[in-house]
Amino acid sequence: MHDERLANLLGAMALAIHDVMLPAVVDSSGVGVSASAALVVLGAHPGLSVSELGRRLGLSQPAAARMVDSLQEQGLVTRRKGTGRVVHVGSTRRGREATRRLLAARSAQLVDVLGSLTARQKQQLEPLLGTLLTALYRQIGDAERVCRLCHRSCCVQDALCPVGQAERSLAGG
Hey, what's the torsion of the CAs at 159, 109, 163, 126, to 10 degrees? Predict the structure, then answer.
């Protein structure tokens, strides 16, 4: 199999996974993709500033502020004044429930996709995905951005997260 065909298959798979995963995430959370990712990031790192949350999602500060406004209007996050102009964001109980639902919906879709593989194929796929994620982390350069919709507890259960490991390796740790 030549690289161009393999790359084409990978691209088609990435788009198809996107097409089945993201609608389930959005439907279960009741908010858009970026807002869903914000809830996941805040679940892992409560109290981030609006600017830092935006940076981790790849949003400008004004776009992040508008998204936080919307999440706050829906009762999913709260704001807390920090020092200076810094505003910290945290999830409400409703926000944490939405996060739990969206991660479960995401997982269900992805487990369904993997259901077409044998146990041996799944075992072979895991290290390959780790290698690809490490390469993507090196290209993107931001673990939080790569993992913005990750179910973090699943990734580190009985294993090291390949993205986190790549970040530590690059930092010399």
Answer: 50
Segment 3-55, tens digit of pLDDT: 999 999 999 999 999 999 999 999 999 999 999 999 999 999 999 999 999 99
Query: What backbone phi and psi angles, to 5 degrees, belong to 118?
Result: -75, 165
Q: Which residues, including other chains, have CB under 8 Å from residue 46's CB and lie 6 or more apart?
A: 90, 91
* Start and end residues for every CATH 1.10.10.10 domain found in the chain: 20-116
Give residue 69's identity as a one-letter amino acid code: D
Amino acid identity, position 25:
V
Architecture of the domain spanning 20-116: Orthogonal Bundle (1.10)
34 and 67 in contact (C-beta within 8 Å)?
Answer: yes
Distance CA 110, CA 154 (A): 13
Tens of pLDDT along 120-139?
Answer: 999 999 999 999 999 999 99
Provide the sign of the torsion angle of the four alpha carbons 82, 85, 91, 92, taken in this order. positive
Find the mean pLDDT for residues 80-89: 90
pLDDT tops 70 at residue 113: yes
> Six-digit token pair at 68?
């936080």
